[in-house]
Protein 1
Amino acid sequence: MSWDTIDLDRDEGVATITVDRPDRLNALNTDTLEALEEALAEARDARALVLTGAGDDAFVAGADIAYMAELSVAEAQAYAELGHRVTDAIETFPAPVIAAVNGYAFGGGCELALAADLRVASERAVLGQTEIDLGIVPGWGGTQRLSRLVGDELARRLVFFGERVDAQDAHQHGLVGEVVAHDELDDHVAGMAAELAAKPKHALQAAKEAMNQVHETHQSAGLTYERRAWSGLFGTDDQREGMRAFVEDREPEFE
Ligand code: COA
């Protein structure tokens, strides 16, 4: 499959999805968002996924403001549902997802990054939930996912004021996990993804699913989920191989 504004590359178990609409700073119109949904479905067998934006300026500058300007309530609802399907597909993607935030990540762009497992920012990145100044609120998960990363007080400040934060501040707030030199971002993230792709995939998937429960359930239900996920992994070859390799003092060879 190929799309006009989304690229999907695959290399040794690592899939890289690039939003490729640089003349609009990779803003997500409906076609691009639908293509992104399809690309995420197509990449589901990957062992690690990288999400980034084309060009030197933007990760994703948000939902497409020109498209949204005249939407009716019903049309806005359909657009929100599409955005939610995409961010849910990132959050529940079976393998770890790394957002390589290579520039502006505003509004819906910030929300794509929030749905990823890990965020690595270029020193040039600027992030923010800027919707308030467009007369709306974050609509693709930002009102829910931001506070779990940065805490409720700061999340409210970012959403209420629509503040744009640079990479260093984003790192200090926990909005991104790491900041690297702009020219090193792609190689750095590719290295992380390759390392993850070499890990036992069932265990990684179980870790991700169990850790996602933190945001879905009360702690007691999450702990029950964890117990089941943990014991279920004892039916996999990777568990046997990983433990036997340790006992036999050799490197494991995962499936
Ligand atoms: N939707 C639609 N088009 C967008 C866009 C968006 N979210 N963000 C940028 N663009 C377009 C601009 O309209 C411009 O188009 P043009 O060349 O036809 O004029 C082009 O992308 C380049 O953007 P420009 O504003 O000229 O670049 P800049 O470097 O001066 O500023 C930003 C970059 C990101 C600071 C600025 O574009 C911006 O604030 N964008 C909106 C961000 C936002 O609020 N996103 C949340 C949406 S929910």
Protein 2
Amino acid sequence: MFPKADWANFVDEQEKLVANKLSNVEITKTNELPKSDVSSDETDQPSLADSSFLQKLIRKGLVDNKNDLEIQRQDPNSPLFSVKTFEALELKPNLLKGVYEMGFNAPSKIQETALPTLLTDPPQNLIAQSQSGTGKTAAFVLAMLSRVNPDLRYPQVLCLSPTYELAVQTGEVAAHMVKYCPEIELKSAVRGEEVPRGSKLTEQVVIGTPGKVLDWALKFRVFDLSKITVFVLDEADVMIDTQGHQDQCIRIHKCLSQTCQMMFFSATYNQKIMDFAEIIVKNPIIIRLKREEESLDNIKQYYVKCASQQEKYNAVTNIYGTVGVGQAIIFCHTRRTANWLAEKMSKDGHAVAILTGELSVEQRIHVLDRFRNGTEKVLITTNVLSRGIDVEQVTIVVNFDLPLDGNGQPDCETYLHRIGRTGRFGKHGIAINLVDSSEAMEICQTFEKHFGRKIKYLNADDSDEIEKIGA
Ligand code: ADP
């Protein structure tokens, strides 16, 4: 049994685990200056699963995407509905109550079309693609829960997520939504969860990772895949990026009934994903919401010449000390530099947070929450946060080290992700590039040329000049 109260306990346990782990966290003490940034696993190149999860953590609110939906369907004559309110979906009243209590007033852009499609009878298969934060999870969780027949005491809805953390997150969303529906029960099929052999699951909704689900369904036979009426595949792009997951999903899919409704979600869209989708989802309606472009418009870009690591440090503190009204993110190439900088800034009395690949997921959540709440004004990080953070309070982004790709070449895409903003917050910002060699100057010029935007010289010792950039 894993009713909602148990799910809440499970989440509480997770939080306790975080607290325990956090009490042991300490910034690595490195008093000496870092040596030149050699390429190593210290550079924190994130996996797709990592990035995807971090995006979810960062984007607590809904992304208000202004782009149009693109819709493809087999039969263009069959009507396609869209709704502007949750009432129009005729949900179970207690489910609607849960939705409102989550603070959702109206469906997001992708939900407007996805929800009626998912809830219509006979059930329609759907492929939906939109960037992280546009409301996909909320959409499929609501559809899953609406389809449950609470009188039947066995799993009817199965949702696969590529990682433990993503599965737990989805479970949390579901637990919130069914708060007022005591008749619907959830079961988490992730590592650490065990079921006695020979027992049978009585919960209607199973949310888990492919390996665990395969074990439970085929090895232990605690539930019957052929009785599943709704199958959700979340984060399909991460799924195919994760070794073995695609095959496991296909094995699970083979045991489902012909009439099972398929829901396939992805943040990105390419041929590989569509090939995978074709195996899982027959005759789908495809909904795509183009990604909101990041742009450098209204970002004032500067470079500062620094002869040494110490000068770079001085530049950061001078600039932040003068302009520092909002929050700042500082990107370093390696964990070592990030740790060094964090320690030095803390000693000088700045409230800094540090986020690198050596932190566990729980620790990352904690760091990002504190930064978002403004407890720390400065976040020092590596490429683990390669997509930057599109939050309103961040006014300055500093490239302590300029972004390089795996071959040591200027990485224009990462530069854009780090400093660019989407249209949501009025786009204003300052980007500072610290240039400590002729190579670094060339990299800076590459960015300038690539984006066709001037990167101006800034004298970081001249406080009058620095004051002007903040104006
Ligand atoms: P995705 O799965 O596309 O990454 P989510 O479903 O996780 O997006 O939604 C992103 C954020 O927006 C979450 O914090 C979620 O609670 C919130 N959200 C989702 N739908 C709505 C809505 N209709 N109104 C307000 N907030 C929403």
